């Protein structure tokens, strides 16, 4: 950062400006926002200097916070489910203090519902999609929320997707990530056609969508694209899902579709070698603690998780654990959803998607603890890092 970007800082007579900026870049957002009142130059630095925003993001702890999606049940007044995206510390969840999370103050909470759902989190921004179905056309808009700043953007330009004949589900999958080469945040939509999947991209702040790719692969599963190292990653079928006989799908048909946001190209990554049987319905990907993880339910009796130790290197797949449903103290009818890991990665929290509560599992000590949530479902969780990135 050049000297002219931060001239006349109040402490410049005591400490060098560069040191003052380095100190400020390591301060939590809540305190930093209060420091804007110190002077006009500090306010300008904290609120409007893009180099300082990047420096603060670089120095912010990367595995401390979480966006947790909590379903509080049916809203009797509006006849709709009350689902909240809540910004919280992971340690609160790991300490089994769910009540303090559910009762978070309004400024750290965003209400979502069946027509308004998360697409992903990246660099302090959370992307939400709202949709409206009109006949056979799905109209979607996207907004960006920074819970640390308590700011949310206006709606993006509309995206229109035609439903496929006879298919009641949405023919699209979504992802949200950051292209460092252009300093751009991008929403990616993959739309299944009768023969190929097409990819459309919207860059935050722009007024249009553009089509970038067409190919036969199609992502599956309930989770959106997982952002890691400049790429979005989905578990996918190796050809168009519309042409599959699902009764014949095996592990050999599954790949990881990895989209490079800078080059706008893709490649296929292999799943761990030696897999014999994997259920497509109960398998998926999740970025946990900065690593791409592949998890699945094996033969209806065990939960299995693998971790790619070096992203993009298929030989680096390592099985973290395999644990029986009996040891989890849980009769699983639906897949578990990993929410987060501890800082050292030894402990993982998993939502029980067909029951109230979650599971805290220390895979090093093989110890299981249950989280009770007082009749509230934990739907999902996403890693979150505090930032000053403006959701515009």
From TrEMBL:
Residues 15-55 form the F-box domain. SMART domains: FBOX (SM00256). Pfam families: F-box (PF00646), FBA_1 (PF07734). This is F-box domain-containing protein. It comes from Lupinus angustifolius.
